[in-house]
Amino acid sequence: MHKSNPHIPNLDSYENVMKMVQIDTGQDVYTMVRVSHIHLFGITFIFFIMGSIFLHARVNPK
User: Fold this and answer.
1) Contact 10, 1 (CB under 8 A)
2) Rg (Cα) of the chain, in Å, rounded?
3) Which residues contact residue 2 at a Cβ distance below 8 angstroms, ignoring those fewer than 6 apart?
4) What is the pTM of this model?
5) Geometric angle at alpha carbon 21, from 19 and 27, rounded to 5°
6) Distance between alpha carbon 5 and the CA centroid of its chain, in Å?
7) With contact defined as beta carbons under 8 Å apart, do 41 and 34 qualify?
8) What are the φ/ψ torsions at residue 49 (nearest 5 degrees)?
9) Exposure of 26 in the CB half-sphere (CA atoms within 13 A)
10) What is the DSSP letter of 61?
11) What is the secondary structure of 11-49 as a DSSP string?
């Protein structure tokens, strides 16, 4: 029926309708923990590098 436009869902049969109305439960807990740890350690590393740059910067008072 909608072969010309791939963005229009095919609702010609009951099986196709049931594919469209499935509930998205999102990511599982293990994936969320892994991604949050990657971000936590990455942000910590960025703060460490920036802190070491400012720590070793010389400020000459006038």
Assistant:
1) yes
2) 26
3) 8, 9, 10
4) 0.45
5) 85
6) 29
7) no
8) -65, -45
9) 5
10) -
11) -SSHHHHHHHT-------HHHHHHHHHHHHHHHHHHHHH
Question: What's the token pair of residue 19?
Answer: 């594919």
Q: Distance between CA 15 and CA 11 in Å, rounded? A: 8
- The pair of structure tokens assigned to 41 is 């350690």
How far is the C-alpha of 8 from the C-alpha of 2, rounded, in Å?
A: 7
Task: Name which of 2, 46, 44 is nearest 20 in CA terms.
Answer: 2
How do residues 17-36 score in pLDDT, each as one tens digit?
Answer: 999 999 988 889 998 888 89
Q: Looking at the chain, how many residues does it have?
A: 62
- Tell me the C-alpha distance between 13 and 20, whole Å: 11
